[in-house]
Design brief:
elongated; five-stranded antiparallel beta sheet; single chain; alpha+beta
């Protein structure tokens, strides 16, 4: 699977083009997913969670008897939960910020899952507000994953500075199996899906505008070099594309396959996560349009990503 950073900045920049031109008043939101990735697994599964140390399971991970499949939820947050959606006057604010717990430091399957849940909450916080503060503690990110998180933040904040933002975006993750797999290097792997919901409204040019489906919007896959992070086994081919449906709220929601690879660091007692994204299984890039000015499509190819970065700077996940 491609690296987290490649997924963020090279393939998945979703631009909100508004007004008389596709560039004027635009806001950028970088989706945390690549449209396609290498299907090659260079870090192949090395064994089951049998609880004994071996070449396949050097850390002795064992099945903790829990079923982690389904939506990943984090339940520990800082302060009062008084989240406010965005308005014409301000972007979303007071988003729930995840709080570090002792469970994050456990070198167990439970600790790995807690780290993923923390990451999911930190991503939602980032998408809503542009802040990377939640990633500064609790977990570690691989260098590529960290660079993409920083780039996403910078882009979101650049859009806010220009007066453009989504009213109520959200990011979430769901896992596909009850327990993780063990990679050949002894690290853990959870396969799952990433969902980015743009919400129904956006702000640009000083007014609320609906986020609508764009029949021409598509998320095009790029070929990527196989690497140790290439973990999605059912990813789309390098030339595959996912096109947004022209009708219905579902087209404002993008769902993509993803892998969480976890490495535990005994010195810091923290999990390091590397997140890679695969095929788009639902949706595409939406657009927002004003009733008077018409709609603009939202390109998400590598070229569009570079263009958008130059125009409004690269999008980063919200605080």
């Amino acid at each position: 699977m491609s690296s987290f950073s490649q997924s963020f900045s090279r393939r998945s920049l979703l631009r909100l083009g508004l007004g008389a031109s596709a560039v004027a008043g635009s806001a950028a939101l970088l989706s945390a997913c690549g449209s396609g990735s290498s299907s090659q697994q260079s870090g192949s599964q090395g064994g089951s969670l049998n609880g004994s140390k071996s070449s396949a399971n050097p850390n002795g991970y064992s099945d903790d008897g829990k079923n982690y499949s389904g939506l990943v939820e984090y339940t520990h947050y800082e302060g009062a939960l008084n989240y406010e959606q965005g308005t014409v006057e301000h972007p979303p604010r007071n988003a729930p910020k995840p709080k570090v717990t002792d469970a994050l430091s456990a070198n167990t399957v439970t600790g790995f899952h807690e780290a993923i849940a923390y990451f999911a909450a930190a991503m939602d916080y980032l998408v809503k507000t542009g802040s990377t503060d939640a990633f500064s503690t609790g977990i570690q990110l691989s260098s590529k994953t960290r660079s993409e998180v920083d780039a996403l933040s910078a882009s979101i904040l650049a859009g806010v500075e220009k007066g453009s933002w989504y009213v109520n975006p959200s990011a979430s993750y769901a896992l596909s199996s009850a327990q993780p797999s063990i990679m050949s290097d002894g690290n853990l792997l959870f396969k799952g899906k990433y969902t980015l919901d743009f919400g129904t409204e956006a702000v640009a040019e000083g007014k609320i505008q609906p986020v609508v489906a764009s029949a021409s919007a598509s998320a095009s896959a790029e070929p990527t070099d196989p690497s140790e992070d290439a973990l999605v086994s059912d990813a789309a081919s390098p030339t595959a594309s996912a096109t947004a449906s022209a009708a219905g709220p579902a087209s404002r929601v993008t769902v993509q396959e993803c892998d969480f690879r976890g490495r535990y660091h005994a010195d810091s007692k923290m999990w390091e996560l590397s997140v890679a994204y695969g095929a788009t299984v639902q949706g595409g890039a939406p657009s927002a349009s004003a009733a008077a000015s018409g709609s603009a499509s939202v390109p998400s190819s590598a070229a569009a990503s570079a263009e958008a970065s130059a125009e409004v700077s690269a999008t980063s996940a919200a605080s």
